[in-house]
Design brief:
The protein has helices at 47-64, 85-96; strands at residues 2-4, 19-21, 26-30, 34-35, 72-79, 104-109, 120-129. With 132 residues, the chain is an alpha+beta fold. It has one domain: 60s Ribosomal Protein L30, Chain: A, CATH 3.30.1330.40. Strands 3, 4, 5, 6 and 7 form a five-stranded mixed sheet that branches. Helix 2 links the parallel strand 5 (72-79) and strand 6. Helix 1 (47-64) runs parallel beside helix 2. The chain is globular, with a radius of gyration of 15 Å. One of its GO terms (molecular function) is hydrolase activity.
Length: 132
């Protein structure tokens, strides 16, 4: 895979790439949007804590499919208010870590989710070479 960051564009605002090239023949995982709810149905108030749960769920889904955060090619995050962006970004950056290739990324501010307690939702695409 290859990060695509044309020199003619302004540099990304944060730790992401403008695009990601996924070669033909790669195995893909697409997650559903993950909300900040624990297995015991508890929902923390903090957007950061909710985002940590989202990314923990994504890490588990990727592991189930034999992948890691290093295989993530795109992250889409949704927050319910501009002031939730910092907590989300801190959790996202921790999830991405020191990746050798930064994924592309989109962050949207939305009016809400199924429960008013939810402040963050995250979904990803991941890709990995097919084992031969």
């Amino acid at each position: 895979m290859k990060a695509l960051n044309p020199e003619t564009l302004r540099a990304p605002f944060a730790a992401y790439s403008h695009g990601t090239e996924i070669p033909c023949g790669m195995r893909l995982i697409r997650t559903s949007g993950q909300l900040g709810i624990e297995a015991d149905d508890s929902i923390p108030d903090s957007p950061f804590d909710q985002a940590v749960i989202c990314f923990g769920n994504i890490r588990a889904i990727l592991a189930e499919g034999g992948m890691t955060p290093e295989d993530v090619v795109h992250v889409t995050g949704y927050v319910t208010a501009r002031e939730h962006m910092a907590g989300y970004m801190r959790a996202r950056d921790a999830f991405i870590g020191d990746a050798s290739r930064l994924p592309s990324s989109t962050l949207l501010i939305v009016s809400g989710f199924t429960k008013p307690e939810f402040k963050v939702e995250v979904e990803v695409w991941a890709a990995q070479a097919v084992a031969e």
